[in-house]
Structure formats: structure tokens, C-alpha cells
## 1
Amino acid sequence: MAAAAVPLGFLALFFVWPVASLVVRGFVPDGAHAWNPAAWDFSGFSEVLARSRTWRIVGLTIAQATVGTLLSVLLGLPGAYVLYRCRFPLRGLVRGLVTVPFVLPTVVVGVAFRSLLAEGGPLGGLGLDGTFAAIVAALVFFNYAVVVRTVGGFWAQLDPRAEEAAAALGASPWRVLRTVTLPALAPAIASAASLVFLFCATAFGTVLILGGNRFGTIETEIYLRTTQFLDLRSAAVLSVLQLVLVAVVLWVSSRARTSRERALALAAPRRGERTVRLTRPADLAATVVTGLVVVGLLGWPMAHLLVRSLQTAGGAWTWQNYVNLGAPGPRSGLTVTVWEAAATSLRTALVAAALAVLVGGMIAFVVSRRPRSGSGRHALRVLDAVFMLPLGVSAVTVGFGFLITMDRPLGLDLDLRTSGLLVPVAQAVVAIPIVVRTVLPVLRAVDPRMREAAAALGGSPWRVLRTVDGPLMARALGLAVGFAFAVSLGEFGATSFLARPDTATLPVVVFRLIGRPGAENYGTALAAAVVLAVLTASVMLMAERLRGDRHGDV
Amino acid sequence: MATSEETPDDARTGGLEVRDLVVRYEPARRGDDAVVAVDGVSLEVRPGEVVALLGPSGCGKSSLLRAVAGLEPVAAGDVRWAGRSIVRLPVHRRGFGLMFQDGQLFPHRDVARNVAYGLEGRMPRAERAARVTELLDVVGLHGYATRPVATLSGGEQQRVALARALAPRPALLLLDEPLSALDRGLRERLAVDLREVLATTGTTALFVTHDHDEAFTVADRVGVMGSGRLLQVGTPDDLWHHPATPEVARFLGYEAFLGGHGSTVVALAPGAFRLADLQQGAADSDDHRAAVVRGASFRKGHTEVSLEVEGVGVVTAFVPWDRVPDPGTAVRVALDPRQTAQIHGPR
């Protein structure tokens, strides 16, 4: 259990303390001492909860997440079938392309959807700009891959003989799907759905860009309260509300997840694969739906973003937007070029990914142990959930919490805010849960008897870790590095608080540019978004190459 | 507990000694009772000896093996090696070999590097390579060194697992159902091979199985376990001819029982009854009983006929294939005393 101390310490210092400080600050009146609970003032709760705006935001958050999750699952199931249960040419490429949206920075997606839906865009006539539908479409864009990969990875390993037995007993394909396949997939679907719900409920960048003034989540509301009104009390109450929401979802998802990971075998044969047959109505329907989603919902916004970045406001072809990346105009308000910001992003993300993989790998290792005692198992379940909390706590809260605590971390006279380490640490905190979720299933699938065999051959615990767990974990770690890198590259919520003007990262620059008037700034923002998307996608595709086995996971 | 093979205390020099061992599992839920998997077992394995633990699944034999390996904590009792208690010694310092039902080969290492695992850091590279080659020859996998383990068949994987376990010359080899995952023909062949390998390498071994043929083929002595207790220990021959209780007899394959004189029970092996009126008239002796043919199934070289014998129950008789009676036929049967065992009770 000593291995738990390092990640626990890291999260205590860089997650619990900043977030708790921010929340506490919301409840302590100016001048009172934080350690004096008698002076705490909880009137903020009743005040914020009495506002109709609060309930509208909570309702919107849940509604967006619910509709987004339902649509992601409904569209993702046929996708999982076509991409993971059927063989067709270029399948690997399509699988990779489907994954790209999930790691695309929220800012990029917001800009892409807006360029599509805004007046003058190809869908401008529909009047969808700044609507609920636009937000939901963007959420599905992100989370389609989560459903396809989680359910698909599970589906690929499902023994087809149960389905064959049902068919032999006279069940129609529809009945087989309903009575055999879907129940077998249920844990994977539940796990994917709860993750998607969590991602939708805490969406920030996309909602901020697409929602305008009328739509928001608890997360964007915290951002507005802190940055525009300096209303820390409301922000603190909203943070607590979000924590409650996240805790409920995490509880549900952890229940769905354990049953799924137990069922995973490390090297299950893929007997269920077959060539897609368009003469079967089910195959045809699934293929058509998947094709429409991949081309229309995933492909089009990205293609349109690319095209628009190569055009002037009037529609003429030009390189000018990309030229501007190296020399932002005086009206851009930037103190660095976009290329400099890109370099900052890469440097920061590299450090963040290293930190996230180190800490996340340790967490996965600790949580994957199987203690003999019931109380030990119970403790691990609690730890597992605790380590997942950063997934759901507002990145904005983390960022702002950093800002108010890291001037004197642990009372030391050491201002981390100027050290340049703060941004990568914050990004690492956001990326850690993804690393854990990627590595954990692989470690859990290692038969404990393999470690026992190594120990019986004279392997000390450290040698078993190095020679058995290590190599088996290596491939998953490659993917985890990729995910952590991509998440850090695109991280916006916390970074927007912490990055100083001269160390702005790419997403921060894109957001600043679209916030400023002028067609030139807008064009530069589009080009910068394309650069960011290309960077992230290349990192992800490289990581995907490193990955040998293709289990479904986040 | 029948410990007919017990030796006097002063004769115990070396080998494995298990004394009144208890292994408990914590309850799955708080408030439930702990599961007692091994309930006070004493057993010894002398140097060079191969002992098999035989019993149905859930009888505690694997838990006993895991406790000896150091993989399960000992709740009570003692495990001693060469006269010293090893209860507190961690697995990797015991110097025992361990082989599982499904090999548990390291998928990221090839055959040679799997076998070399227990040798790394203990001897120079050249010596290690020579030892690996030697072991692969012993288990009949010459030339397999660079094969990825994923390309091996189940039987080959078990051979690699055996070579890997034997490579560091373990003081004691522990085998947990090493052949159970294989199909029947392969299992029989590998059991013979396993016996040979253990004999040529002079390995002391404790071997867990639920298959009595396997236990009888491989082991010098066999211990029969049931519900966490050791019911009887003896040589295969001794066990077969003198089962201590009807429970042991039934587990060894005796299929019916007759009341004998006093408290004695006669256990009947398959083939204990022969069809009598095929050879001679229904003339002599009280040993003849009435029976009805229930069915027949063809086996290698003979036919197994299922008979319902009056006052005994359903038993199996072996009949030449050209003399198989039709189902429903009433026949007379005679008892062959060589296919029976006396069990003296009550216990």
C-alpha cells in the first residue's frame, strides 16, 4: 500500500487542496479565519438555490447530458457493430478517424460547429447557432467514439455461439439482438453511457463557445461567476452541486465497470467477425447509419473547418490565415505568435503527459491489486472512486483553485505560479483519470496466477512488477501517453486561468482570437484550430499504432 | 484419519512436512462465516517422492498446495521443509517450483525466455542457455526455443510450463492440476511423460488432481481429500485394494457396495459382476444373482453393459462385443472377488 502514498499525496496537494480552498473561500466571510467553522457562512447555499437561474442551469446540464448520452448510445451501437464486428476494407483507418473527435480540443470543436451553423455557414439557414440542438450535436460528436470503442471492444470478444444457439432455436435476427446480444452487451453499454453522461455534464469549452448567453452548464456558470462577477460564493455552491452530480454518476459507473472488466480476457479470439453483407437488412441499416454519422456528423464539421481556414471572409481561396499564425495583426491582442503558442502547448503537454502517466500508472497499479481481506477490497473500491474524482470536478474549479493556493504551496515561500510548472500540473490532474481508465483494464486482466508463477520461480515482488506487469502494461501505457498528451494539448478549462499572456497555449489563443472582432482574427482562429486539431490527431494516431491489442476502453 | 504410512519422528530427515494445517478464506461479505478450505491436514513428502492429492473440486486440495507454495496464509498448523518451519518465508524465497493448470506462461516472452525466467540473475548467460536447451530436451520440445508462446498448442504450453518450473532445480515441485485442461489422449500421454521427467530429474513433487488415473500414473503415494480433510494416504496399489471408507472407495471408482460380515462392507469395482449363464448353466453357488440388462455401450475391445443387479443397484460389466445381450434381458451374474475390496468399519 506504500505505492498508494505518492499518487494520494500528488492528488491531495494538487487537487483536493486547491478545490477545497476554493470551496471554503466561498463559505468564509471576508476577514474570518477559515479554521473557525463557527464563522462559516452557509447562507450562500440558500441564496444560490433560491435563484431560478441556478435551477435552469442545473436542469440544462442534466438535459444536455441526458439527450447527448441517449443519442450517443443510439448512434454508437450500430457503429460498434459495423466497426468491431464486421470486416471491410480500410476498417483500421475508419476506426482511427472515429477516435479523433474524442481527443479533439473542445475549442476546436466549438469553432468548427460554429463555422458550420453560424449565419453565412452552409447550415446557417437552419437557425441552429446558439441552440440546444447545436450543443447536443457537438456533444455527440465528441462522445460517439466513447460508445463505439467501449461497446465495440466488448462486442468483438463476445462469443458468437450464444447468438448462434438462439438462431438455431428459431429466433429472428431482431429477437437474437434483443434477447441475447444486447443483454450481453449491457455492462459495456452502461459503462459507456455513464462515462458519456459524465463528459457531457461537465462539458466546458464547447458549451462556452456554442451556448452563447442562453445555454450553459454548471461548469460554464462557475466560470462566469468567478471571472465576470467575482462571485466566489455562488461559484463555491455550484462546485458543490456539481460534485454531488458527479459523485452519483461515478457511483453508477463504477458498478457498471467492475462487472465489465472482470469479463475481459486478455487474448480472446475474434470468432464473431464476419464480412459485412449489405443484403441483410440489419447490416444495411447499421452501415447506412454509421456512414451518415461518420461522414455527416464527424467528417463534415472538420472538413468545413479546414476549408474555411483556407478562405477569406468573402470565400476566396487564400493562405493568409496561416501566414497570420506567424505574425498576428495588431488587432489580435496577442503578445505571442500562434506558432510560439503551439510550441508552448507541446512543451507543456509533454511534461503534463509524463506526470499524468507516472501518477496514473501508479494509481492503476494500486487499484488493480486484489487484497484478500474484505476490508482491503472495500478500501480499494473507495480509492478507485476517489482517484476518478478529477474526471468530474470542474477543470475551471481546479484552475481557479490553483490560482489562489499555489502562491505559497504548503506554506512554503515558493510561488509556483511563476514557475511554469503550474499549467502542466493542472493538465496532468485533468488527464490522470483517462490514464487510469486506459491502463487499469489491462492490469486487471492479468491473471494473478501469472504473478504467482513468477514469484514461485524466485521473482521478488519488485522483479515480478518489472518483468511481468511492466511489459504487459507497456502497450496500454503507450496509448495512455497518447491520450494524456492529447488531453493536455487541448485542455482549456484550467489552463485558461493559469496561462499567462506570454505562455498562452494554443487553445487559449484560439479562444482569445474568436472573442475579438474582425474577420482577420476569426480567420487566424480557424487556422490555429486546424493546427491544434492536426497536432492532437497525429499524437493520437501515433499512440494508436503503439497499441497492439484493441480492447475497448475510453 | 488413516495415516498408515506414518514414519517415526526420528526418521524424518528432510522433505516436506505439513502439520495440522488449516487454511481459511475471508468471507465474501462481512458477517458471513469464513470458509475453511483445509481443516487440519497432516502430510509428508519425502525427498525424491511424488505425492498426489486426489479429490473432487472444492475439497481443499488446491488450497493446501497454495499454502505450501506460500500463496495462501496459514491460519493454524505448520508447514516445514527440511525440518524448519517455512510459514513466514515469502513465496519467492522458498525455492519451490509451481505449475498451474493453464501454464500461465508469460505472453511477452518466447519459449526460451519463459524457461529462463527462474535462472536470470543466478548464473552466467551461457550456462543459462545450456540449461534451457537441456530442459527443452527433457520435456520433448527440442528446437522450440525461439517460438512465441501464443503459437503453442495446449500440450506444448504445459511442457514449457513444466520446463520453466524445473529449470531452477526446485527443492519441491508443486503441480496444480497440470494436465486437467488437456484432452484425454494427450492427458494420458503427458501423465506418463511427466512421471518419467520427474523420475529422471529426481524431483520431489506434490501434485494436485481430480483424476485418479492421473494420480495413480504419476504418484508414488496418493492422498485422498474430501471436505478439507485428508481421508487416506497410501500407495496407489494400497489405496485401491484397501480403501478406508466407502467415501474413498466411491471416489476411486468403486461403483456399488454390498453388506459383508458384521460391519464390513464390500466395495465393487466396475467388472465385479460377470454374466454367469453365458458360460455355464445356472447351476452352482449362492454367488449368483438375478440382474436385468439396462443398456450397453461399445468401448475399445469390449462392451460395457449396464446391469441392474437385484439387491445391489446399477453396476457395469465387461462383455466381449459378440455376446452383448439386448436391453431388458434377464440374466444371472457371478461375483469376481478380485474386483472387490473389503472395507472394515464402522469408522
## 2
Amino acid sequence: MILHDLFDWTSSGVGLTGLALTVGALWQATGAKRAATEAREAVYQRNAADALAEMVRLAEDCEQYLLLERPNEAALRARDIVSRIPKERKRFERFLIADSDKLKALEIVFQELVGQLSLVRSLEDKANARSTGDAIGRAKAELSSVHGRLLSRVDEEDS
Amino acid sequence: MSDKAEELARQLLEKTESGKLIWTFVPENSPEVYWSEYEKFRADLDGGFSFFISRLANGDNKIVEFELSQPGRVVLSVQANNFPIVGGPKTRQLLDIRKSQRPDEPLDAPLIARFRLFSDLFYAARKSAVHEDQTIEKVQQLLERLG
């Protein structure tokens, strides 16, 4: 009789320990999944910031090539930005939030700049070259501020 | 030497844009520039001093030369070009480090500034030469009169 009771208690104990271990493992797995999701989000945000940094660099090159009277190369950079903006907007839409619309507006600005840069002869006029250079400078500053806001969000997440 | 040339070029640009200095076209037919686009302009000052500004272009590559001369010798001769910095990944890496240290200053700012100055002077000289020289218009009028 005593032996039978002992056997029952032991089974119950083993059962309870198993249950506790399962709950613990489940809790840990949930935590690990959350951590993995957060890490993935952080990587996505970094990638978004890197993509913006690359576009800012292209805009800087564009500005410099215009000063050096190499409009074909400047137009190539502007065209590169135009083709990148829709892709990056779609890819990182949830991180860009309101800046997504700003990027859309910048896409139009750079599209117009491609047109201006293809008018090579008109850029020989000092006033035309200056106004095109100013437009590139403003667009570059806008891109740079979008990049800055994205970086500040990344820093907030990190801290 | 190049600082003095830049200072002179700056003054010449100002005088040319305000119409106080007149430039004339200088024909150049040497074989060296046969396959290139070459233009040269000249402005004369009292005392036999002359300034020359010329541009040699091959596609997008341009070399602008600024010269001061007096009879028998060239006093100053400075060039500026629009060749971009080229290099491999190592150069790019070094340039990125330099850029991160001084973000507001373009890598080749002095070179770009000199090219811009000489190029602006070149366009101003060309404009002055074309606007001031009425020969082509006169010849056209004479041809029209011939009937």
C-alpha cells in the first residue's frame, strides 16, 4: 500500500516537473523569438539608413560633377537616384513613415534635374549652371535630412 | 605662382563681366589640337601685356589654360582641369576617412575652385569676343546687299 502511494506521488512529481520545464522552455522560446524579431528589425533599419547614405553620396557626386562641367556623369548619378528611390521606398516603407512622401517628391526633383543636366550647352551659361547646382544642393540637403531622421530613429531603438 | 594667377583671373573675370575688358578670338590650327575642340581668346593691356585663356576639350575632359605674357616671354602659365579623382577601393577607403574627418570640405575643393574660376573666365572671354566682334554681322549685311 505504502509502496503504491509512493509510486503515485513520484509519478505526479515527474509530471509536474515536466510541465514546469515545458512552460519554461516555451517562455524562453517566446523571448528568443522576440529578440530575433527585434534584431531583424534593427538590421532592416540599418539597411534603410545605409541605402539613404548611398543616395546622399550619389547626390554629392552629382553636385561635384556639375561643378567640374561633367554633366553626363552628373546626369548618370541623378538617374541612379531616380531609379533607387521607388525601390527603397517600397522596401523600407514602415521605417520611413512620413519621409516616404518626401522621397517621392525628391524623385520628381531628380527626374527634372536629369532633364536639365542633359541640356549640356545651356549649362555653359553661368546663371543656368548655378540654378541647377542650387537645385541639386537643396535636393541633397533634403535627402541628408531624411537620412539623419532615420539614423536618429535607429539610435533611439538602440538606446 | 598659381595663387597669383588665380588673383589675376578673378580680377579679369570681374572686368570682363562688367564689359571693361574686351577679348578677341585667337585662331589655332596646330596639329596638336587637330582632334580636339580648342578655343583661345586674348585680351591686351597697355605696356604690351597680354592675357590668354584657352580651353582644350576632348569629350567631357577639359583643360583650361591661363597665361600672361609680354613681348618675347611668357610671364605666367597655369592650367586647371576637370578630371575627377579616380582610384581603386583602397583610394576610396582613404578618401572616405578624409571625408569623415572634414565632412564640409570637398576632397579636391581647391582644384575645383581653380577650374571653376578659369572656366568662368573662359566663358566670359568667349561671350565678350562674340558680342564685341561684329564682323560676321557686317559680312552678312554685305552679302545681303549683293542680292
